[in-house]
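Hey team,

Filing this mostly as a record. A colleague (T.K.) asked me to run one chain through the structure pipeline before their review meeting, and I want the input and output archived in the tracker in case anyone asks later how it was produced. No errors, nothing strange. Just documentation.

Input sequence:
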Amino acid sequence: MRRTLKQGISNYHMPRYMRDILINNYCPCFLSMSIVREDDSYMFSYDTGYSQRLDFSKLSTIEKLTLLRSIIKINHMTEDWLIKAEQYLLEPELLYSYNNSVYTDEIKLLFYPDFKNQEFKYKLAIFIDKIKDKRNRRETELFIKLKELSETGDILLLERTIEKAISRLRQEMEVRAG
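Output structure:
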């Protein structure tokens, strides 16, 4: 089901290069969009394509960890396109995916300006906190550790910790299955 979402924003200025990157869909990390500018107001129109808002309630711990790994990769990609994490919001409700996939190539961000210009490490820490299942004690403990790592800004260590957690959980699943 294709949908178009619209959002008006006032008292904001977007650099021309960034508008060009977003409206020409050069950076594959964001939903396709068009932007209409009038003075200091913008109207953003997003085409969700066949993607839908990611449903976190249906994700396992391994899928959430894979999602975190994907978000880190997406951050690297957006920075390569000169769109830094400080320029857009990273919120669970702004992630779109095809078939609730958590893999980098199938996730799209809905670009919405971050008026606070918050650093990626803090955005990611808040994101981690929001997607954890508080009813799952083991997941909560792991995600608290990941949140703390994110806040330190050592993204490489965070990535390694996520990879180890994914491997450990997969091994546990194999032992249970076999």
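Quick notes for T.K.: The chain has a mean pLDDT of 95. The two ends are 39 Å apart (CA to CA).
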